[in-house]
Amino acid sequence: MTDQEWIERFRSDFNFSHSSEDQQLIKSIQTSRAAIKRMTGVDDDTNPEFVELVINRVRYEYNEQLEFFEQNFESALIGLSFEYNQEGATMDDNSSIE
């Protein structure tokens, strides 16, 4: 997704209409993507769970509640990480058979 697509997704999910803070949102989106990747190993904006976690982390940061994000989304973070690691293990197992 492009920066503009991320912003549009944030706006549509949270009824956020003005563009005066777009540059700050872009920075938050980039920071959030990196944080979710660090926590889960996933950086795939075609994965709906990844996108949802990024958008919610941006929301928490925007509302100055970031310290609660990991605790409140712990289950989703672990689930995404587990899913990613299972897919990687399956792919590795299949490639070693050849």
Into which percent range does the helicity of residues fall?
over 70%
Following the backbone from N to C, one meets helices and strands in this order, namely HHHHH
Q: How can the largest sheet be summarized? A: none
- Overall morphology: globular
Q: Alpha-carbon distance between the termini?
A: 34 Å
Task: Output the structural class.
Answer: mainly alpha
> Any low-confidence stretches, pLDDT <50, length ≥5?
90-98
What Rg, in angstroms, do the CA atoms define?
A: 15 Å
Number of strands: 0
Q: With helices defined by DSSP (H or I, 4 residues minimum), what is the helix count?
A: 5
The pLDDT mean sits at 87
How much of the sequence lies in strands comes to under 5%
Detailed description of the structure:
The chain is mainly alpha-helical. Helices cover 76% and strands 0% of the residues. Helix 1 crosses helix 2 (22-40) and helix 2 crosses helix 3. The model is unreliable at 90-98 (pLDDT under 50).
Features of the shown structure:
globular, mainly alpha, 98 residues
Layout of secondary structure:
Blueprint: H1 3-14, H2 22-40, H3 48-62, H4 69-72, H5 74-97
Give me a quick take on this structure.
This protein has 5 helices and no strands. The protein has 98 residues and is mainly alpha-helical.
